[in-house]
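Predict both folds.
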Amino acid sequence: MLNSNVGGWAGLVLAAVLLGGLPDTAAAASAAPVSVLQLRPDVYMLTVDGVNLGLQTGSEGTVVVNPGPAGAAQAVSAAIRSISDQPIRFIIDTSADAELTGGNAAIAGTGQNLAGLAGFNLVNGVDTPQEGHAASIVGTQAVLQDLILRGQTDAAALPTETFTRPQYDFYLNGQGIDVIAEPRAHSDADSVVLFRRSDVLVTGALLDMTHWPVIDVAHGGGINGEIDAINRIMNTLVDSPAPILRENEGTLVIPVRGPVCDQADLLAYRDMLWAVRERVQYGIEHGKSLAQIEASDPTQGYNTRYGADGGAWSTHDFIAAVYKSLQATERAHGRNNAGAEP
């Protein structure tokens, strides 16, 4: 795993953005410090409340990948302004999770979208801002649907540019930006964002270096889709060399939580998921219940690194989600070898 100075070459800026002059309740919700880590000359990782966000900026504007939780929107906006005075042109939502999309309306409202959007490509000469229009919010069609189903009624917080194809591509600040759909992984609405020339990938909730990945079965997530997504990400990185790479440098990966990663970290994470999936699948194929499978400790060897006995996403929660998603796969293929849930 990369260390905190990203191999010794990327500049580290720690920006504690604390708001003043607000009512006590608003200040309590928004006073979380935002740390800023510069990964490339034009790409930054912002961290607030433990959640990592991505930012790319240049002469044509700024792109924000996941604006963060609603309560931190003012702090995140202030951190963005401390990095660049260019207007925010795009916000990209990698899922519908509130901790990633809560700031949609507030952050988009500080930006200006681009006129002349033709298809999925911005070309020279059409980057005139539409005065009074907020930044565009990009996400899969499933993100839009999930936000509405989860009760989001503010139209300003919903994606304005949605897609159902495998990939949404556009060009800004001299580089291609790929929003790549990864369905049925963490949820049914996932995507990752690759800044091609800068060679930085933002994974959203697909990759969490602090605990087990959240498999949101209720919103279409599944362990098989999670593993498939990590495999596709690794293939994308291998097939996407960046011309600005220096010696001994490779693709930098921003997870939803934890330090910046590289391809070796992705491989280790994929292998962990594969091992747990195989152990749970073995139990299902032998008629074991969830309780029996959990008693066999299918996460053995990884508990110290990723496990938690309690909290919002415990080891029990993870095993149960893997079990339920594999049961759903069994039913979809007409098999019924699984034992009954306790």
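Second protein follows, with its predicted structure tokens after the sequence.
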Amino acid sequence: MKKVIALLLLMVVTTTHPLQAAEEPFEAGVHYRELSRTLLWGDSDKVEVVEFFWYGCPHCYQFEPTLSAWLADNGETVNFVRVPGTNNRYNPLWDLHAQAYFVSQSLGVSDKTHGVLFHALHNPESKKRLASREEIKDVFISQGVDADAFDQAWNAFLVKTNLNRAEQLGEAYGVGGVPAMAVAGKYVVDSRVPKGFSQMMEVVDFLVKRELNRRSTAE
């Protein structure tokens, strides 16, 4: 009888362990970091997915095609938010470029200017630094934005407010580098995952599904 019981216990262990591994392919502390409290940028019924980025970051530029492909498949499922990095004491361009993003958002032209700003900085033929308001303004004008509208948006209260919010959220998340992703205000995924950009989005997928399952169970 003891041998039978031991055999049954062995069968339970060997059949349940692979299932557990399949359910948890990614590990906290290795593939993502879990926050002690929930921090959200917006208010939506969908799961929030945030990208922290900087236009001057070559890794963010390289990450864009991977992120765009993921959004093409998942953009309707989640509430996707871009949050530019700010307040880098070593490089004042972070704040300048963050302001450019929030100006584009306030003018409703971020779909036009987002890729163009990246390209202006990282295309070898461009050789732009976007190190001044006037340089950034020229990019916006090239995309059909009225010069006066740009000037008004640049100094707008909403843009300044969003800059402050971006700084606070980045600090609260403990974002030490970009690109980085946040899911449901609870989890942070950065490019230090073992297998790079493609795995970043696999981890984001996993965490989005986890949050959706949690919500459906709670209903």
